[in-house]
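Lab manual, section 2.4: Encoding a predicted structure.

Procedure: take the sequence of the chain (140 residues), apply the prediction step described in section 2.3, and record the output as structure tokens. A sample record is shown.
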Amino acid sequence: MANRAFSGARARLYFEGDVLAGWCTGVRGSENIALQRVDVLGELDSEEIEVVGRTVTMTADFVRIIGSSLQAQGFWPKGARDEVINFPEMVAVIFDEVGGDRVYKLEGVKCESRNFTVDRQGLCTVNATFQAKRMYDETE
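Recorded output:
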């Protein structure tokens, strides 16, 4: 089979493995490995560069469907303090609908922020940001 590019026309975002995340129009993921230089007096160059942590984030854009908010779909906490604090971690998967394969998987996903945009001549969109513990691609 020839190599093929993965495109948005093939992609779907799912939470918890099988719950389609509404009308998602874009997803961005980021994995950052935090490094710390070991710089010592009397040396021009660093002695070492040590890994000290990793952070993973995901941002997703959605078209706002009336009656189908992120909260209504179960992807965002609702309620008072206890419901927000106890909202469970999720798993998010970017899936290739044509090839039938998982392209990215994020584990330990927690909600961080959401905002909306609505203007006179456009669709209402929601942008949501999530933190996660780990991100895997199709090789893992």
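Check your result against the sample. The mean pLDDT is 92.
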